[in-house]
Structures are given as structure tokens and as C-alpha cells.
Amino acid sequence: MLWFTGLSGSGKSTIATRVHEELEKRGVNVEYIDGDALREVFPSTGFTRSEREEHLRRTGYMASRLAAHGVTVVASFVSPYRESREFIRRLCGEFVEIYVATPLEECERRDVKGLYARARRGEIKNFTGIDDPYEAPENPELTLDTRALSVDQCVDRVLERHGARH
Ligand SMILES: Nc1ncnc2c1ncn2[C@@H]1O[C@H](COP(=O)(O)OP(=O)(O)OP(=O)(O)O)[C@@H](O)[C@H]1O
Ligand SMILES: [Mg+2]
After folding, report:
1. What is the side-by-side order of every strand in the sheet holding 142-144?
2. pLDDT over 70 for what percent of the chain?
3. How far apart, in Å, do the first and last CA atoms of the chain sit?
4. Which residues does ligand 1 sit against, CB inside 6 Å?
5. Domain with 83 in it: what CATH number?
6. Could you give the number of structural domains in the chain?
7. CB neighbours of 58 closer than 8 A, spacing ≥ 6?
8. What does the alpha-carbon distance between residue 3 and residue 96 come to, in Å, rounded to a whole number?
């Protein structure tokens, strides 16, 4: 399980999509799951702590079942609460927590989806980093600072980490 966590706009999907592509090219049995795609399928999922945690426990459980059958799962979720991530870690034989550690000010400067501006205007509630917490990983297997590393370099780091075990 390659689990990407970080603020919105930190670069999770950008890096994870590329990692998925590269693994697929190498013939790895790999599946990609992304918070945005899941929320499109389940649009009523809210953003309170309990809703986020429940959503992640369900997602994480299903993903861990795939992983148990030899699928490499690449997962991209803000997953702001340490407890949810640790819950999923406990379900997995091998959990690689990848902290995309782009600071809030850089994510907000990028504002890829225009959501930070909306959150600042109070149009969106429970937005991670603005009026909702993000609990940074304390001991991630990998930390990527996207201010210092290019997308290619980030992808390489993840592939190295995966390759080291496979
Ligand atoms: N080294 C880098 N790695 C990843 N993304 C980068 C890097 N440098 C700049 N970027 C840019 O940062 C943005 C990251 O957006 P992305 O959608 O991947 O974030 P996200 O973490 O998936 O956010 P969300 O949680 O909202 O889905 C993209 O516009 C990407 O081009
Ligand atoms: Mg994303």
C-alpha cells in the first residue's frame, strides 16, 4: 500500500498518478484510488472529522483486501487524521506512508482547484489547513517536499522505495 497524504494541492494526485503509470508499465499488478474519484461516486460524504474517518476506514479496509491479494495499491487522500492512517496501516501487511509535505502557503499559492480562495471567503467549511486540522505524519516512510523536488524526482523516490522491497 503506497498511501499518499498531504494538504489539498500538495501534489498527491500528480505524483501518485505517475507512480501508477510507471508501475503499470513495469507489469506490476497495481490499482489507483483517489479521494476525488471516491467522493464523486459517494457525493454525500461530508467533511466532518467523523465522516472523514468513517470514509477512510471503509476505503482503507477495501484497499487492504486488494493488497492482501498481491495488488499494489496507490492511494491518494488528504487523510488529515493520524488515527485514520494508523487504522489502515494496521490492516496492511506493508504500509508505505508517503507524506507530501508541501507547506500550506505553497498549496494556497498554487490553489489548483480554487478551493483555498473559497475557504478563505468562508464559502466552504471544514477545509483542511484553513478551518480544519491536518495532523502531519510523525514517522512516515517517505517525505516529499515538492518545493525542493521536481515531479520526476518525487516519482523516482517512491519507485525506489517500492523497488527496494519487490
Ligand atoms: N514536485 C511536484 N510534485 C507534485 N506536484 C507539483 C510539484 N511541483 C509542482 N506541482 C504542482 O502542484 C499541484 C498539485 O496538485 P494535485 O492535484 O496533485 O494536489 P493534491 O494533493 O492531489 O490535492 P487534492 O487533495 O486537492 O486532490 C499541481 O498543479 C502540480 O503541477
Ligand atoms: Mg488529488
Report:
1. 30-34, 72-76, 2-5, 96-100, 142-144
2. 98
3. 13
4. 6, 8-15, 36, 76, 78, 110, 112-113, 146, 149-151, 154
5. 3.40.50.300
6. 1
7. none
8. 6
Look at residue 93 in the predicted model and tell me its pLDDT. Answer: 92
Ligand 1 atom with minimal separation from the 78 CA: 25
- Greatest Cα pair distance, the chain, in angstroms, is 47
Q: Which ligand 1 atom is nearest residue 112's CA?
A: 29
Q: Which three cell numbers stand for residue 58?
A: 471503509
Query: Mean pLDDT in the chain?
Result: 96
Residue 101 is part of which domain span?
2-163
What's the pLDDT score for residue 26?
Answer: 96
Residue nearest atom 3 of ligand 1, based on CA coordinates: 151
d(CA 65, CA 126): 30
Written in H, E and C, the secondary structure of 40-95 is HHCCCCCCCHHHHHHHHHHHHHHHHHHHHCCCEEEEECCCCCHHHHHHHHHHCCCC
pTM, 2 dp: 0.97
Contact 76, 35 (CB under 8 A): yes
**DSSP letter (8 states) at residue 98:** E
HSE-CB at 88 with a 13 A cutoff on CA atoms is 31
Q: How confident is the model at residue 69 (pLDDT cuts 50, 70, 90)?
A: very high
